[in-house]
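I have been asked to look over a protein record a colleague put together. Alongside the sequence sits a line of tokens, each denoting a local backbone shape. I have pasted the whole thing underneath without changing anything:
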Amino acid sequence: MTAEDGAAAFAAWWVRCYTARVGAEAAEDRRAEIDSDLWEQRAHARSVGAPPHAVALSIVRRVTGGVPADLVWSRQQRGVSRERAPEREVTVSRWARPARHSWWTAAAAAVALFYVWVAAGNLADPQDPSAEGSVLAALCAATVLVGLGLRGRHRVVGDVLLAVSVAPAVVVIWFWPVAVTALVVLVCAVVDLAEARSLRRPGPLGVLVRAALVVAVLGTALAWTAMLSVGGWVTVLVACVALVALLVLVAVPTRRDPVAVAPRAATEG
């Protein structure tokens, strides 16, 4: 396989990913459109004698540059599907359908078990018992469990708790499986957070709220990560205050405005 073929395969894989949750007809049309674009791009490159590695780089650049637009298209198509079939027949279990898109929460539970193991190990170490380390690990484990419990009713708050609580485990490079697992959970939580329906406000205000939320999540996660190397009860207090402030920020855009529903109800009546 040449570099050009690999780039085309990467583009096809990405198209399959973001069209997996839309209607079959829309997904098929989108894939056919992208296949046609790729064929035209490669044919033009061959006609002008462009080297394969340059074509591959161009394809990858187009794919990565179009990711935001692709995600917006996917979200719009899912909205259209919901409007066309509001009373869709349930063919998948109520628990199985969300589980397809929340597989990473199982990894978050594994990180929580790691925190419990660390907390118990610190207290049981006869040479260097660390009450502070045990409290930090136990606090992180509890935050993971609370986040998992809240995701069903408050998706945004649950994602924030998971992103913040698994961040310290990302730096556990001496136990790389845990570090990789925590990194996957952190990325998935932030992505899921950005897609949360309750944060989709139109206009500049919505963009500002989403940007502030992502910055707050990453900033608080970095604060917790730095706390592992600094230590001390003061840092525990600072991390808790930062977490509370972050939850306050999240609570603002998740409120629903009942006034917006009133005109529709009056019209239907």
Notes: The CA atoms of residues 197 and 254 lie 9 Å apart. The chain has two domains: 3-84, 105-251. Residues 105-251 form one domain. Confidence is low (pLDDT under 50) at residues 85-100, 252-269.
